């Protein structure tokens, strides 16, 4: 089997003639944390949407664990073990943290989501749900409605609902966006913890998060791959520095 859990070749996406992503090759190594970075408008989100099949590529091929997934739906990709955090937007504000994770577990097992009469069914998931809440540091919030959780805790709950789907490849879309510094530290620690036994691909703007977490970084600019390597090598790359300096982004 290949060392790569995810392989994309020649990935392209045009919007009415404008190429947002053009000829991107991306190989994500099994067990790694791989970050996709780049200045505003570089094509990171489009690339992410292509990989998770929220967008259909205009050209290119994507394989997950050696199987071609280019034609699959987002749900089909998720069922195979490649899950995007927040994909299922499973955080229902009026439900408690525990109830949210139980619903995610029920869905992961192909439950018909009929939770209106499902209390007896859902109760079977209590132990596993409590263990997942513990994994993300939310055991003390099990009974708290999601709406009452702080922003950082809500993101942790979203990660717990994603973990409920038992992803082998977890895709995180700007996991620290909009967070206070203290919450950023907590999410970084959480990502370090949950990486065991799985691969993580993330889009992230916060470069200190990227430098501390990523084994490998792909830098996009104007829809193309500008550089790839570890943090030390991409941050010393002249083309990368120029691309970042040309925007209002923080320095690399
Ligand atoms: N649905 C769409 N229709 C038209 N243009 C689009 C669409 N989605 C993205 N684009 C354009 O494609 C380019 C890449 O956008 P994308 O959102 O992928 O970049 P990004 O790297 O995620 O940027 P940011 O860091 O600002 O979120 C941008 O110029 C954007 O305006």
From TrEMBL:
It comes from the Bacteria. It holds the Pfam family BCA_ABC_TP_C. Keywords: ATP-binding, Nucleotide-binding, Transport. Residues 6-247 form the ABC transporter domain. InterPro entries: AAA+_ATPase, ABC_AA/LPS_Transport, ABC_transporter-like_ATP-bd, BCA_ABC_TP_C, P-loop_NTPase. Transmembrane segments: none annotated. The keyword Ribonucleoprotein does not apply. GO terms for molecular function: ATP binding. PANTHER family: ABC TRANSPORTER ATP-BINDING PROTEIN, CONSERVED COMPONENT OF ABC TRANSPORTER FOR NATURAL AMINO ACIDS-RELATED. This is ABC transporter ATP-binding protein. It comes from Acidiphilium iwatense.
